[in-house]
C-alpha cells in the first residue's frame, strides 16, 4: 500500500466526511453521551493484590509478573503483551548500585495511534527497580519467573509468557513450552481481580490510570510521570487522575464546605486548647499557608492551581479537638526543602 501523504483532517477532499463526524459527535454529546474513562485501581485493591501474589504456584508467579510489567512500565492495552519476548527486557545496574529491569523498544499505541517505534518512543525512562528488603520486590519475582521459563525443555528462547502447569511434578518444571495467547492475556487481569476478591473487575487499561494516580498522589510532577507513561504532554497525564473513592471523598468535603459557607456559619473553636505536644498536620491546600501565622486548617481542598496540587505542606499546630485552632504566640521558623517540595512551619 502506497502512502499518498494526504492529511485526512485538513485536506479539502475530506471536508464533508470530517463535518459528518463532527455532527455525529455533537449529536452524541447533546443526547447525554459522555466518554467513559477507565478507573484507576483503588488503593485497597492494590493491598489485596499484594497479598494475593505469593509466588507459591506457577500461575500465581506468572500473574504477579504479568501485573508488574503493566504496572511498572505504564503501558496500556493488551495488544503488545503477546509480542513480549525475553529480549524485550534488559537488566541494568543503576548508579546507586541497585538492580533494575528496563523494557526495551515496544510497539504500544500512544501518540495518535502510531505504532512505529521510531515515531512512538514509549516508556524509555520507565524502570522496575529492585527492593530486596521487600517480599514484594518486582525484580525478584521477574528473576524467579525467568529462571523457571528458561528451564523448560524445548522452549524456543523467545516467548515470555508460557502456559503454566496445573501442578508441579518431581522434575520441578513449572511451565510448558506453549506460549500464552492474546485471548488469555487480555482478560487475565479480570480473572486476577475475581480470584483476589477485588472490589471490581479491572482490565489492563485500568493500570495506566493507577500508575498516574499513585505517582501524582505521592507528589511527583506530571512532567516526570509523563516520562514513565510515555505521554507527550501533561494534559494527557492529568486526565488519568483517579476517579474513585478518594475523589468522591474530596468532592463530598468540598460540597460540605460550600454548604457551611452558604449557611454563614463556621465551626466554633474549642474554648480551651489541649496541653498535648504539637503535632504535624499534612495538607495539600496551598491557601492554608496564607493564613498560617494566625491559624492552621487541616484540609485537602485543592483551591490552588493544578500545578500546586502536588505540593505537600506540613503545618505544626497545637493538638485540639477542632479543625480550626488558635496559633501559638511564639516565634515561627520556616524550613523549606526544594527537593521534596515540603514546607514546614515550626513554632519555637
Please describe what this structure looks like:
- The chain folds into 2 domains: 43-106 and 119-238, hpI Integrase, Chain A (Orthogonal Bundle); 272-347, no CATH class.
- The termini are far apart.
- It is globular, with a radius of gyration of 26 Å.
- Mean pLDDT is 72; it is low at 107-123, 270-330 and 339-343.
- It has 10 helices and 11 strands.
- It has helices at residues 15-30, 43-52, 58-73, 138-149, 182-185, 188-195, 207-217, 222-229, 234-238, 245-263; strands at 89-93, 99-103, 127-129, 162-164, 175-179, 279-283, 295-297, 312-317, 324-326, 332-337, 342-347.
- With 348 residues, it is α+β, with helices and mostly antiparallel strands.
- A 4-stranded mixed beta sheet has the order 6-8-11-10, with no helix packed on it. A 3-stranded antiparallel beta sheet has the order 1-2-3, covered by helices on one side. A two-stranded antiparallel ribbon has the order 4-5.
- Helices cover 31% and strands 14% of the residues.
- Helix 3 packs across helix 4 and helix 7 runs antiparallel to helix 8 (222-229).
The CATH topology assignment of the largest domain is hpI Integrase, Chain A
CATH superfamily label of the largest domain: Intergrase catalytic core
Mean pLDDT across every amino acid position? 72
| CATH class category label of the largest domain | Mainly Alpha
Number of helices: 10
What is the overall shape? Answer: globular
Quaternary state, please?
single chain
Percent of residues in helical segments? 25-40%
Question: Which regions have little confidence, pLDDT < 50, spanning 5+ residues?
Answer: 107-123, 270-330, 339-343
Order of SSEs: HHHEEEHEEHHHHHHEEEEEE
- Roughly what fraction of the amino acids lie in strands? 5-15%
